Amino acid sequence: MTPTTDRPDPAVLAALAEQTIELPSWAFGNSGTRFKVFGQPGTARTPFEKLEDAAQVHAHTGLAPRVSLHIPWDRVDDYGALAAHAADLGVRIGAINSNLFQDDDYRLGSLTHPDRAVRKKAIAHHTECVDVMRATGSTDLKLWLPDGTNYAGQDDIRARQDRLAESLQEIYALLDPHMRLLLEYKFFEPYFYTTDIPDWGTSLLHCLALGERAQVVLDTGHHAPNTNIEFIVVQLLRAGRLGAFDFNSRNYADDDLIVGAADPFQLFRIMNEIVGNDALRPESGVNFMLDQCHNIEPKIPGQIRSVLNVQEATAKALLVDRDALRAAQHAGDVLGANAVLMDAYHTDIRPLLAAFRESRGLPADPFSAYRASGHGEKIAAERVGGEQASWGA
Amino acid sequence: MTPTTDRPDPAVLAALAEQTIELPSWAFGNSGTRFKVFGQPGTARTPFEKLEDAAQVHAHTGLAPRVSLHIPWDRVDDYGALAAHAADLGVRIGAINSNLFQDDDYRLGSLTHPDRAVRKKAIAHHTECVDVMRATGSTDLKLWLPDGTNYAGQDDIRARQDRLAESLQEIYALLDPHMRLLLEYKFFEPYFYTTDIPDWGTSLLHCLALGERAQVVLDTGHHAPNTNIEFIVVQLLRAGRLGAFDFNSRNYADDDLIVGAADPFQLFRIMNEIVGNDALRPESGVNFMLDQCHNIEPKIPGQIRSVLNVQEATAKALLVDRDALRAAQHAGDVLGANAVLMDAYHTDIRPLLAAFRESRGLPADPFSAYRASGHGEKIAAERVGGEQASWGA
Amino acid sequence: MTPTTDRPDPAVLAALAEQTIELPSWAFGNSGTRFKVFGQPGTARTPFEKLEDAAQVHAHTGLAPRVSLHIPWDRVDDYGALAAHAADLGVRIGAINSNLFQDDDYRLGSLTHPDRAVRKKAIAHHTECVDVMRATGSTDLKLWLPDGTNYAGQDDIRARQDRLAESLQEIYALLDPHMRLLLEYKFFEPYFYTTDIPDWGTSLLHCLALGERAQVVLDTGHHAPNTNIEFIVVQLLRAGRLGAFDFNSRNYADDDLIVGAADPFQLFRIMNEIVGNDALRPESGVNFMLDQCHNIEPKIPGQIRSVLNVQEATAKALLVDRDALRAAQHAGDVLGANAVLMDAYHTDIRPLLAAFRESRGLPADPFSAYRASGHGEKIAAERVGGEQASWGA
Amino acid sequence: MTPTTDRPDPAVLAALAEQTIELPSWAFGNSGTRFKVFGQPGTARTPFEKLEDAAQVHAHTGLAPRVSLHIPWDRVDDYGALAAHAADLGVRIGAINSNLFQDDDYRLGSLTHPDRAVRKKAIAHHTECVDVMRATGSTDLKLWLPDGTNYAGQDDIRARQDRLAESLQEIYALLDPHMRLLLEYKFFEPYFYTTDIPDWGTSLLHCLALGERAQVVLDTGHHAPNTNIEFIVVQLLRAGRLGAFDFNSRNYADDDLIVGAADPFQLFRIMNEIVGNDALRPESGVNFMLDQCHNIEPKIPGQIRSVLNVQEATAKALLVDRDALRAAQHAGDVLGANAVLMDAYHTDIRPLLAAFRESRGLPADPFSAYRASGHGEKIAAERVGGEQASWGA
C-alpha cells in the first residue's frame, strides 16, 4: 500500500520538473520584530546583491528561477540593468510588490485614507510599479493592503470599503492587458481593530468587481487562529481566483517563519489540494511565492530550506493514490480515506528527491551543499561597508 | 457632549418602536452540552407551550412578536392551528429552520453527502419545511448546514462544494416567489476538520450563485477567535446580502450564551453598524433573531434578558452623534472619533428605555416584572408529566 | 545524516518494547456532539464487552495492556469479576475516572458547588471510586473537574478555588498510600465563562498543596488556541508532576479526534520532549492514556490507529540524534539544530516498526490485520439487542 | 436596584482617592509596528521631557503620580537630577524596567542564552538597574523576559528553564531587602515557537523558587486567545503573588492599545476581582501600571484616556452591591447574580467622577481639558530638533 519511491512515476517527476517557487528579494535583507532587527554578516546591501543571493538558492535547488521585487525597497536607476543582471545569474524578475506602509502620510491608511489626496498618492505609487513591471518583464502587480484602524469609531468601515473599491479600479486601469493584479488579505497587523482586507471573502469581492485579471493572494500566515487554509485554497480555485501564494509558517500570528516549519502536515494538505485540483501546472496561473523573515537564521540557507520544504510537500502530494482515495471516500470509509492520505505523508520522500536532483545536475542535498560551498563565509567577508538592506531601506 | 437621554430624540424612539427580535422556539426546550442536558422545572413539552413561553417574552418587552420554528422539533399535525395559537397569544410564526443533523443517514453529511440518495433525502426535507411555511405564513427558510468532515482525506473538499451548490439550487427552486433562503455559516462543530460553510465568504458565494432571495445568516458565535464581526456585518450589507442575525454570545467557541453577556461592547459595535448603515428599519430585510441555549439559567427570563440586551445596545447605537463622529473621522482625530462612539456606549440608557416602555404600556423593568409575575412558578407547577422538549425531541 | 532504520539501535527497540498506552473504556461506547450521537453496529453494551474490544487493540498492537474505567459508566456488581475478565483477555484495569458532570445536582458545580451538601455528594462519589480501585488493583484516581460558570458574577471565582482546595483534600485523604490522584485541567467546556481548573498552573497549584501523590493530567485538547503543549510537558516534568497524558487531537476546541490526526508534528514534538527528558520509561510514572471520541469512525480501528500514531511518533523521537542536536544547539546553529530534529521526523519509521512487531509475534500492520480479521463484522452481527454503551449509559 | 451615583458612598470616594496608576516613560516616545514607526510632532526627546509629559497626565487626572523608567532607554548621567526633576513636576520614579531585547548578543536569548557569557552580560545589566533604583528611590525591578526560540529543536526547552532559574537567582540576589523583583510573562513575540516565560504558571513557579519578594506581572495583552484574565488575577492574588499589572488592550495579539478600548467589560471584570479580593488598597502591593503604544494617536491624550478608563472601571467595580451579589450567588440565581454585576457596569459613572475630580481641584473632564490647554500645540512648536525618543533610543 505504501507509495513506491524506488521506481517513481514519470508523471510525478514531470510535475516536479515543472515546479517553480518565487523568492522575495526582501528575504535577503535584514528583518525583525518591532523590538529588534538583528543584523547578519553578509546581508545584501543592494537589489543587485539580493538577486545574487536569490540566484544561489536557484543554483542549488533548481526551484527558484524568479525573484519578486518590492518598490521602493528595490528602487534602482536602471531596471533594465537589474533585469539583465538577473538573467546573467540565471533568474528573472517576478512580481512587483507595492509598498503602502512606510510613508508618514499613510498613518491612517493609504488606498482607504479619508483624504482623497493621500489616496491619490498611494494610487500614483502603482504607476511607478507598473513602469518597473514593463522594464523588467514582470506581469504580476502584487498588493498587500496594510490599511486598517486601531480604535472603534476611528473611521467609517463602509466608507473605507468604498474608497478601496475606487482606488483599486484606478490601479487596475493602469495595467497592460497581459498584467494581473494580485490582491492579498491579512487578518490583522499593522492595525489592530479593523483591517480593510482581513479575509479571502473581502479580497475576492474586490477582485470580482475589478475583472478577470484581479486575483487573490493567499498568505499562509494571514488567517485567524484555527482557520482551515486548504479549504480556502479550494474555494479560490473553484472561483477561478487563486492568483498566488505567499508561503511561510506561523504558530501564533503572522510569524513569517520558514514555510513548513511550524506545521509540515498543513503544508502537505495545502499542496494536496493544489495537486488534487490540478493547480500545480504552470498554466494554472498560481504563482507560488515565499514571503518570510529570517530574523535569527541565515537568509540564503533559510530560503533553501523553504523551497525544499515546499518541494517535499509537493512530492508527497503527488504520491497520493488518488484512485484509492476516491474509492475510500465514496465508500464512506473515514479511516481508510485518511489512511491513503497519511500513507503518502509518512513516506520519506527525500531519497526520491535526491535522485531527481542528481538527474538534473543539482546537488542531492542542496542545504548541505550550500553550507559546504563556503558562499556564506565569502559574502560575509566581502560585503563590508555600505548599508545592509532591510525593510526600511 | 454626553448624549441626552432626558429629552430623547423622537427619531430614536420611533426607531426603537419599530425594532423586533425573533425568538427561537428551541430556546424554550432543554439544551445542554455533549456532557449533560440539565432539565428544568416548567420546560415546555410541545410547540404550543413553546409559543406560550415566547409570548411571555413579548408580553413583557414588546420586542419579540415572532417565533422561529425548527422542523422536525416543532412538528405538529395542524400547522394552521399552531399559527392560530400564536395569533391568539399575540405573536406569529417567523423563520422555519430545517434540521440536517439528527438523522443517522447524515453521519457523513446531508446536502454534501457523497451519496446522492442521502442528499435527495436532505433536500426533500425542505419540501416539508416549505409546506410549513405556507401553512404558517412564514417567508424565511433558514438553513444551517452542519456538514463537514473530521479527518483530512475523509472526503473531497471541492466535490462537497459542488454537491452543496447543486443541493441548494434544488432547495431554492422549492421556494415561492415571496420566500427567502437564509444560509448560515459556522466556523466548526459538529465536525472538526472541515466545515462545508465555515465562513461568510463561502455562504455569500453560494447565495450569489442562487439568486437575490438567497441571503446570508450571521450567527455571532460562529467565527474564528478574534474575528471582527461588525466588519462582516458591513461587508454583507454592502453586498446587499445580510438576511438575518442569530444573536448569542461566546467566550470560546459556539457557546450560545445570552447575547451581550460575554462582550456587551461588541454587541453595541454591531448595532452601531446596523444603525449607521441604515439597516435597522424593518424594510432593510434583516431579520434579527436569537439563537441561544439556556443550559443552566431559566429560559423565559433568559430570553427576556437577551432581547433587552439587544434593545439596550440598539438604543445606545441610536444615540451616537453621527455628525460629530463623521467630523472627527474626516479630521483624522483618532481619539476624538473613538470618544464620540464611547460617549454613547457609556450612557446609561436604562432610564430612557424604562420610560419608553411605560409609554407603551409595558413594564419599566421587564426582567423583574416577569420574575414577580409568578409565571415561572406557575408553569413549573402545571407542566408535570409528558416529555420536556429538547433538541432531540 | 539520516537516522538508520535498517539496523535499528537496540536501545530504541528496548524503549519501544516497554512502551504502553492506556485505553479508555468509553472509547468503545458511542459518543458524539451536543447535536447528535451516531450509533454504530457492534458497539459494546457492557463494561465486559468494552474490555473485549480493548483487548482486540492490545492483541493487534501489543501496546495497550491497560483499560481505564469511568464510574458510574462502568459500574458492575462484581469488580473482581471484571478484573478477572480483563486478565483473561490479556489486559488489566488502569485508572479509575470519576464522573462529576452527569447529575442534576451538579448544574452549578460539583467540587466547587456553593452548597456544601452538593460538594459532599461529589466527594463521596470518590469513595466508591477508591473502592473500585481496591477491587481492580488500580492505583490511579483520575479527576477531570468539569466545574465552571457561564456568566460573569454567577459565582465567586476565589470562593470556588477555596472550595475546590478543600474538596480535593478530602478526596486525597481517601487514597491508600500507594495510590495517586491525577488532576486534569481544561480550557473550557462544559462551562463557558470560567472553568475552575482551566490551565496547568491551576492544576499544579492544587497538586502542590495536596502532596507528592497528586499529579497533573495533560489532555492534549484542553488548551487555548496556539498553546505550545510540549513546553507545558517540560514544565510539568521539571516540577516532577506530570502524572498522565490524555492523548487526542484537535483543530478547534476539545475535538477529541484521533491522536496525531490533526497535527502529527505536534505529537512528535511532545514525544521528543518525553524522550529527551527521560520520561518514556515506565518508572517515570507518566501514564500515557488515550481520551478520544470516535463519533463517525469505527471504534476499535480508531483506537488501533491511535496507539499506532503514538508509537510512530515515539519511534521517531527515539531516532533523534541527541548528540548532534546538542552540538547544534550549543553552537547556536538554528537551522542545523532544527534539521537534526526534522531528520528524524521525516524518516519513514513504518518499516522498522513492522519488523519490530513481527519479531514480537504481532501483525506487521495491525490496522489492516484487524480490518481483515472479520472481528468488526462479527461483533456487529452478535451484539444485537440491549443498549449500546455511551456517555450517558 | 441601580447603584446610586447621586449620593456616592464615602467608602467609594475614599477608595478612588487612594487609587494610583503608574505611567511608562516609553509611552511618551514614538512606537510602532515592525512595519513602521510614525513620528509625531512634539514627541519627547529626553527622559526629562518624558517626565514632563507624564506630569501633564497627573496634573489633569490626579491619578498618575509615578513614572516607570526603562534602562537603557532612559539612561541619564545624573539619576538624582532626574528624580529631582520628577519631584519638581509633582511625580516620582516608579519601577525600573530592564531591557533584554535590543542587543545583538541576545539574538538567541538573554537570561536563557546557551552561552554563559551572554547570560552574565544580561544579568550584569541588572546591576545598573538596581543602581538606578537606589538613585531614584525605586523599589520595583521589573523584568519582561523576551527570550524564546523560533524553530523546534533550536534549543533545549528544559535547559533554558534551568538557565533562567539560575539567572533569576543572581538578579534576585542583587536587590536590597526592600526591593521587589516583578516578573512578567508573555504568550509570544518576539519569538514564535517557544517563549521562556509564556504563562502565569511559569512566572509563578520561578517566583516561588526565588522568594517572597518575587512577584508576577500580569500584562493584559500577553495571553492566548480567549483566556479569562480575571481568573488569573484571582489565582495570583490567592497565591499572594500579584505584583503588578501592565494595562493595555488587544483584539488580536499584544496590540498594546489603550486599556479598556478593545473590551471595556473585561477591564471592569478585572477591576471587579481586584475590588472583590480587596487588592485595590495601596497596601495590597499591586502596582497598577500602563504599558501601551500610541502608534497613531497623540501620546499625552492617549495616556489620559487610559488612566480615565481604569478609573471608570474601578469606580463601577466599587459600585457593585456585594451583599446582593453574594446572596444571589448563594441562592444559585444565575441571572440574578449576573444582573447585580451588570447593574454596576451599565451605570454611567462619569457624573460621579466629574464631581469627585472637581472636589479635588481637578478638571471635571481631564481629556477635554488637556485638549483645550494648548499644551499639545506648545510642545509641538517647542520640541524642534534633536531626536525624538522611541524604543530604539
Automatic annotation (TrEMBL), chains A, B, C, D:
<protein>
    <submittedName>
        <fullName>L-rhamnose isomerase</fullName>
    </submittedName>
</protein>
<feature type="domain" description="Xylose isomerase-like TIM barrel">
    <location>
        <begin position="80"/>
        <end position="253"/>
    </location>
</feature>
<dbReference type="InterPro" id="IPR013022">
    <property type="entry name" value="Xyl_isomerase-like_TIM-brl"/>
</dbReference>
<dbReference type="GO" id="GO:0008740">
    <property type="term" value="F:L-rhamnose isomerase activity"/>
</dbReference>
<keyword id="KW-0413">Isomerase</keyword>
<dbReference type="GO" id="GO:0019301">
    <property type="term" value="P:rhamnose catabolic process"/>
</dbReference>
<keyword id="KW-0479">Metal-binding</keyword>
<dbReference type="GO" id="GO:0019324">
    <property type="term" value="P:L-lyxose metabolic process"/>
</dbReference>
<dbReference type="GO" id="GO:0046872">
    <property type="term" value="F:metal ion binding"/>
</dbReference>
<keyword id="KW-0464">Manganese</keyword>
<dbReference type="InterPro" id="IPR050337">
    <property type="entry name" value="L-rhamnose_isomerase"/>
</dbReference>
<dbReference type="Pfam" id="PF01261">
    <property type="entry name" value="AP_endonuc_2"/>
</dbReference>
<dbReference type="InterPro" id="IPR036237">
    <property type="entry name" value="Xyl_isomerase-like_sf"/>
</dbReference>
<dbReference type="InterPro" id="IPR013457">
    <property type="entry name" value="Rhamnose_iso-rel"/>
</dbReference>
